[in-house]
Design brief:
The structure is a single chain. The protein has 117 residues and is mostly helical. The protein is 82% helix and 0% strand. Helix 2 packs across helix 3 and helix 4 runs antiparallel to helix 5.
């Protein structure tokens, strides 16, 4: 089981770059959990009603909205390996701005206008 998980961890690292320490520790401390997480991840990323490429663009947009630098970089690395273009990412990030940047501004402005009339 350990060799199998080590191989999956190496593949993941090749795809996304640096793997978080806690995730690496799962291979030793909770190998069964690591295996389940990896199986679930493979299932999520498989093509389905939407393509893997579209899923990567969604993941990049979500990670950017959460301002999670590691996740953004990991998703960008994986996206590049499956043919996602810079232009496609830029367009997805424009959607992120509208749904993450602008709503935050509108909410804050509404609160400001209410509290500091």
């Amino acid at each position: 089981m350990e060799k199998k998980n080590a191989k999956k961890l190496n593949e993941l690292e090749k795809n996304i770059g640096k793997v978080p320490k806690f995730f690496k520790e799962l291979t030793v401390n909770e190998p069964e959990m690591f295996g389940l997480v990896m199986k679930f991840e493979e299932h999520i990323w498989d093509d389905g009603a939407i393509s893997k490429k579209t899923k990567k663009l969604i993941a990049i947009a979500i990670a950017a909205a959460l301002r999670d630098q590691h996740a953004v970089r990991a998703q960008l690395a994986g996206a590049a390996k499956i043919g996602v273009t810079k232009a496609e990412v830029e367009e997805a990030l424009r959607v992120t701005f509208l749904l993450s940047g602008m709503p935050a501004y509108v909410y804050g402005k509404a609160q400001l206008d209410e509290v500091m009339k």
